[in-house]
Each structure stands twice: as structure tokens, then as C-alpha cells.
Amino acid sequence: MKNLFRLIPSIHDILHSDEMQKLKQEQGLPETFLKRRVNQVVDDIREELLKNELSFESKNEALIVIQNRVVHNIKKYLSDRIEPVINGTGTILHTNLGRARLSEKAIHQVVQVAKHYSTLEFDRDSGERGSRHDLVEELIKELTGAEAAIVVNNNAASVYMVLTAFAKNHEVIVSRGELVEIGGSFRVSSIMEESGALLKEVGTTNKTHLFDYEKAINDQTSLMMKVHTSNFHMVGFTDQVTREDLVELGKDHHVMTYEDLGSGMVYDLTRHGIGKEPLVMDVLKSGIDLVSFSGDKLFGGPQVGIIAGKKQYIKQLKKHQLARVLRVDKMTYAALESTLKQWLQQDLNIPTIRDLLITREELQKRVKLFIRRYYECHHKGLTLKEIPLKSMVGGGTLPEIELDSYGVSITSRHLSATKLKSKLRNLKPRIIARVEQEQVLLDFRTITPEEEVIILKKLVEID
Asked: What class of enzyme is it (predicted)?
């Protein structure tokens, strides 16, 4: 064992070896960075020697092992953490894969704003300092019918800001059936606690009545909050108070009303027989004081939280210290502005809505052509078959909806489905698939025609 340790070159010798100096020069690495990586690799090798997991015969062999590991570790360390992937799962708003894809128009606008200085806080008319809060407010007002609006960095931030600004150290009445948990174990009740608002639960899990709210109102009541249960669907013996009734009760008792909508739908999907998601404009028509929703769910834009409603309340939010803490950057505003304009101009070339509305028949045509092209390459290592599938909307929206979809099932003579899925995941770009009944499935609902070309090439390579 001691002899093996003696074969490990000194850190100085490793650092000044030709291979390490070449790596340092090619990657533009600081000496301190390279030294830390070498030390870490040497420590790992010592640990492996102690456990009899590694051995070498000479100092030169040890040096080669160390050099190879350092090169591998540094390349992995410097690789992109966030990278494009091809989503073959069929889940349109896949939270792990970044939720909504931006439209081409939004992408173009982001690039332009990122490349140049911008009018983020510059009044174009006066030439004086402007406010980023004014950039898209008029567009949101036009689209939703709200009196005013403000944008923050996500919808959880919207909830937190509203509760902090209007209910800190005061009671907020919420139905027990609406105390949801959103992605990443964030609970509405926990956000309330952090904001300093005092939660007042009313009703039961499945039934809440108007009199439950009325009985709970007292001098400490600041807000009645309604939470749209967009990430689960309750059926059976249920009853919840309508927002219209809640608004009337709020007016009678001079209590503010607020609804967290979550998904933020501005296009009526019911005309296509998809779900019963409330439209933001219809919710505001009910007279509710404030609503908030996400920008990167059914709205199909960047990650933001949009708070819209009565001008007197939005004005207070704009002056609140959290308005600076939770504000969004120039590239997010660029993407949001572009997406808002597309909705206003009824331009449905927004990936989220496009993927929602594409029919199984259209997908089937693409699948048939894809399989034919694969077999025209005369490759037989993989077996491709067309298969009807069910897609999910995802992102905590429309949980009860399954969309009729179409895709490709892939099996290999040499690889198990799990190994084939892993192989696809480790390609560049990574292809994310799902496995069912020992078949790798690619759902074409979330795959673009441009991505089909890439997948075809990669499948031929695997073959």
C-alpha cells in the first residue's frame, strides 16, 4: 500500500506536466482553479487505494490516470448546467424541463434586448428616468380588462407580495379545500406564514359555504382569498363558494378579495373541449379586487407572476419595498411583452397553445412519415412502431385532462428499454423519453418538426 502511495506524483509535478499545462492553456484556466481540481482528484485516488478499488504499476501510469480524471472532471465542471433538450414525454408544461417554451417572436425580442442597451427604465418621450412597472401594464390591462397590473418574478412571489402588503399581522380567510401545495412542496399556508398573514381556515376539505366565510369575518380580517385548485381535481360530494358570492360578501363587510388563479388562461380552451379553466378576464369581471397568475404555464410566456385588478391596490403594490425585491429583468420583460402582443393580436403561434391544440390526426401523419424515413436509411437495430398515446398538460394545470396524442414506440435487440432511454438522455442534445411496458415512447405532441430531424439522425447513430 505504501509503495502505491509513493507512485502518486507530487501536486507540483502534476500541475507542470505537459498535459495539464496544455489543458490550462486551452481552457484559459487560472492556476488556483486547476490546482483545486488536481488536489481533489488525488484525494479521491488515495481514498480508492485505501479501499483497494484502484491500483497502478508505475509513476507514469499513476500520472496518466490522474491527468485523465482531471481532464474529465474539468470538462464536466465547465459543461453547461442548463442546456436545450428535446421533450419526448408529451407533457407540454414539463416543470423539470422549463415549462412553457417561448415563441419565435418572444425569443427574437429577448435576443435584441440582451444584445443592446434598452429602455428598461427610460421614458422614451421625456428622456428622463422611467419605471419598468409601466412597460407592459397597458398590454395586461387591454388583454384582461384590469384597471392596473404589476409584474413580479413568479406567481408564488405574487401571493407573497399581496399577503405581505395587505394582510401582514391580520387574518386571511381561506377555504380548507383550497389550501393547496404547489410544485417543490411550497404550500399556500406556508407562504402565508412567511408573509406574516394569519391564516383563518373555514369549511371542510370538500365543502365550504358562504356562511363559513361570513361567520369568520371579524375586526382582524383583512382579506378573503380564493385559490384556484389548478393542480388537482376533486370530484364527488363537493361544494365551494363562487367568486361572485365572495365578492358580494367582501363588499358588504368592506373586506378585500383576492384570487390566486395559478395557470393564467387568456384563451378559451373549452371551445376545443379542453377543461374548464377560468379565463383571467372573466374572473376580473366578477368584481374581485386582485387576481394573480403565472406567465409560464397556460399563458405560454416567461416565468413571471402577474398581479392584476383594482388600481388602488396595484398602486400600493408598486410603492411597496417588495416591488424592488421581486422585480423581473429586461429579458423577461422582453419575452413577456412579445407574448402579450401575440395574445392581443390573436396570434396563436405560441408553443404552449399550439401543442395543446394539435390533433392526433396531424401527429399521426408526422409519425408515419418519421418511421418511413428511419427505415429508408436501411437500419434494423431498432424497431419503430406508431402508437396512440395520452399526453398531459403538466405544470400543475388541468390535471384531469388527457389529450389524445400519437408517437413512436422504440425497442432494441441489444438494449433494454431503461438502457435505451438512458442512452437517449445522454445524447447531445438530450432526448427525454418515457418507458412503458418495456418500450421507449416518444410523444410527438411536444416534439417539433425540426426536432424530428435531429431525433432521426440520433436514432440512426444509436443503431
From this structure: transferase
